[in-house]
């Protein structure tokens, strides 16, 4: 089979590999739609995972089952499925402790284009099909469905980690696809005021669609000052970080009220440490909580997100700005995520 791969850091290309083989509990899936992720860009161009040679990229896909192992009970060849980007090992102690994302090691629930070949291929392997796949109903278009696999589960996890209460004031830093889903998730959880931080007009408009009540442009000056102005010096109850760098964490600590929560779903790619401003953190005594997490995967998560889409609580189509048909467009779609032209939120390739 063919796959679009990271040949090494900064090197991309098509490669040939043997078709994957399912273990007794696994499935082999043929993709129907895939989407490149900002994380693929971190992987290839920033060496986020260290060097990987000839690793097929991609972790966002919906597809059709091509083969199942002998012990798979609930799925059969031909079923259309949602494939979460996190596919945990469900028989692990970390799962019993409540952290499926870290099954068998920190961040190890994320396997595609990390520990094994990803989804930009004719076929890809899914461990523990009964526990990791969800049926994709015909009512949900492929382009929207593929947004559940990472963008929605990640952004919504941002809102979950932030522990949004009814009426909470929330800042969502970064309004790319992940932050936009942070806004949508915050609204569903009952947030009051939602301030989105970003600059590109297409994202600003979409942030308002998903529930942002105010927008702050980080290119127009210090975001702490802008948010303090908007909140009459009080700050906000919750901050979701889905963009920016190390210094953005310091800004988040500054703008959150005592007792507030900062929920980080951003990838921090450089430096040995992250800054926490001492005084703004109440010299350690301000009850300001900082949490960060990898997106949850698995079947139940996907079925629950699927219901939010099916019953029209969230319209994922607004995230997808560029759609290509045919695997030969994967490179083009991926490079769009690197260059982020002003009209882009997410690109999708259908097969
Ligand atoms: P995008 O690049 O599309 O969005 C980033 C956002 O951050 C944009 O709105 C950008 O604004 C804004 N931004 C950039 N610099 C600053 C700054 N200095 N201050 C404030 N805002 C800033 O990324 P995605 O939405 O695709 O992904 C967001 C992050 O989530 C990435 O780091 C990605 O790797 C990570 N991720 C994490 C996952 C998890 O499981 N935790 C899963 C998937 C992704 P503008 O574009 O207007 O300049
Ligand atoms: Zn991703």
UniProtKB/TrEMBL annotation:
Domain of life: Bacteria
Domain Enoyl reductase (ER) residues, every copy: 8-349
Keywords: Metal-binding, Oxidoreductase, Zinc
The enzyme's E.C. designation: 1.1.1.80, 1.1.1.1
Record PROSITE patterns: ADH_ZINC
Top EC category: oxidoreductase
Coiled coil spans: none
Cofactor: Zn(2+)
First and last residue of the signal peptide: none
GO molecular function: alcohol dehydrogenase (NAD+) activity; isopropanol dehydrogenase (NADP+) activity; zinc ion binding
CDD domains: NADP_ADH
The family this protein is said to belong to: Belongs to the zinc-containing alcohol dehydrogenase family.
Annotated protein name in UniProt: NADP-dependent isopropanol dehydrogenase
Gene: adh
